[in-house]
Predict the 3D structure of the following.
Amino acid sequence: MKLYSFSFSPGMINDFNQVIPPYKGKKIFRNFLLNEYKIPDNIDDLIKEENVEVQPYRMTDSEIEKIDQLISESASKGLRLNRSVVMRSVFNELINKYKDSPIVPSEQKAQRFKVPSGTIAKLNKLLGSNANRTFELSSFIMEDYVPSNDFPSVRNEKQEDLFFQTDIEVFDKMDEYANEYNFKRGGRTKIFRDAVTQFIKSLESDSPKKAELDQRLKRIIEEYKQIEDTDLIKENIKKYLK
């Protein structure tokens, strides 16, 4: 799976998580997108959305290929869409589908884990201030994480507490890995630190914050082109790159 960034309507991710528990959200989203979703007849409001929030979302190749296929099919009909518009539409459909009968949430569990000092700052920097860290990290543990077999002690390092609250299935998954390695004590914490380390590495190679800035820059340049010549825009941009 790969991390992508999309522009969502304000509060849309939160509304989605209110009707579909985070742990189950990925599977329900994937099944709906691949097998049920169709571009609605009236999508104008989602196309014109201006006050958007850029959020990361981890997707499989089949999911992103399906979105690109929908965009291509729409273009042949004269409808210009992009990936963010399709994502907003899919989320909107699912929110409407489950808002009157939300899926019963899984039992929640919370724990404070000791992690190397600076871990939280790294996550905030890479995910962006508005990112749903718990949602993405939970998804990573359930779908992408494979223990590295390298669990160094952090006893002599500066540490900080990372509070993690999510569906109990995520904790069960970490405990399964801990049992596989026959940890006598602190197995879940060792697995969690290893998962966070891998998660950060995946973000560093594919940063949603960079994608957010790319989208913001693109929108600004598109607006700039409406009032200024392209060559002059290039010259002005060069001034900021010195």
User: Anything to note?
Assistant: The chain has eleven helices and four strands. The chain has a mean pLDDT of 86.
